[in-house]
## 1
Amino acid sequence: MPSYMLDPVQVSSGPDFSPGQPIQPGQSSSSLGVIGRRSNSELGAIGDPSAVGPMHDQMHNLQMLEAAFYKRPQPSDSERPRPYSPRNPAITPQTFPQTQAPIINNPLLWERLGSDACGTGTLFFAFYYQQNSYQQYLAAKELKKQSWRYHRKFNTWFQRHKEPKIATDEYEQGAYVYFDFQTPKDENQEGGWCQRIKNEFTFEYSYLEDELVV
C-alpha cells in the first residue's frame, strides 16, 4: 500500500521548502522522462554481459530481487475499498443527492480525467481531499501516468521540467515542476494550489514513492 495512504497528508500547509515560481499556462514537462527511471540502454539487459558488464548485471539482479521482496503482497492488498464517509456530514434537503454517485468509483472516469489537460487539477484535489480512499488511489495512478512522481518527504508531486543536470543511482538534480497544495487561509496570504517550478532541486530517490505500479 502506498505510504501516502498510510500517513494522511496535512493540506493546511504546503511543501516544506521555499516556493518556486508559478508555471506558465501551456508549459509541459511530461515528455522529459520519469524521475528515477533509467532507460534500458543504460541498465543493460539482465544476463547480457555485452551490455554493461557481468558485475553490473549481477548487482541489477540482486536489486530486482530485493525490490520484489519488499513489494510482496500484503494482507491489506486483499481488503475491499472503503466506502465514502463524509468528514462533516450536513443535513440537506431530500432533493440533494444523499449517496455518492457510483461512477466516482469507475476507473474509466479517472482515465478520462487523466487524458484531459483540465482534469489534472481534479486529480490533485481527489488525492489531497479524498485521502485513504479508492478515489485517492485512482487519482495517484493517473498522475503517475502523466510522469508525476510523489516525494514522501515533502508530500507533494514532482515532474521533470528539463532534463536533469546530474543523474546518479542515488539522486538527480535539475529543474522540476511541483504541485503546491497549500490553500490560502486569507486574502493576504500568497496563493497556492498551483504548479510551480523549482530550479536546482535535488530529488533523492530514497524519498521516491514507487510502490504504485502503472
## 2
Amino acid sequence: MSRAKQTEKGAPLEDAAKANVSWTMADIAAPLIKHKEELATEFKSSFESMTQRLNHITSAIGDHSVRIISLENATVTHQRLMELDAKHHTRQKESDLLKERVAELEGRSRRQNIQIVGLPEMFGGPGLTAFFSELQVEIFGEGMFSSPPEIDRAHRTLTANPTQGEKPRPVLLCFHRYQVKDLVIREAHKRKHLVYKGHPI
C-alpha cells in the first residue's frame, strides 16, 4: 500500500482521536472549573462568616473595655466616697466634741448667772455692771460682802422694750465668781421678799 493511501486511511483515525482528546479535556475541565467556582464561593462565604465573627468579637471586646473602664471608674468613685465618708465621720466627731465643749462652757457660764425680775426699766443707765454691783450691796447690806461683788456682764433680756403698763424686762447678771452668785441666791431665798426703792424684785 502506498504512503498516499495510508495517509488517506489514517487521517480519519487521527481526526477521531483528536476529537476524542478534545472531548475528554473539556469533560475534565468542566468539573474542575465548577469545583473551582464552588471553592471560591465557599471561601468567600467562609471569609464573610469569619469577618462577621471578627466584627462580633471586636464589638464584644469594645463592650468589655467599656465595662472594665466603667468598673474602674466605679471603683475609684467608691474609694473616694469611702474617703469622704471617713473624713465626714472624723469631722462629725470633731463637731460633736466642740458641741460638748460649748455646752460645757455655757453650763459653766450659766452657773454664774442670776436673773432679776421686776426691776423697772428706768434703773440701770449706761454702767449696768457697776450699778448692779452696788445694788447687791444696797439690798443685802455691806456686811454680806467684803467688797462690792464683781460682775462680768449685765443686760436686760433681748426682747422689745415694754410699753406703759407692761412688765419690765428681766435683768441677767453674770458674776465673776460663782461662789458669790451662790451666796446671793441663798440669801435671797432666806429673805424671800426683796425690795429696791419700793419695787419688789
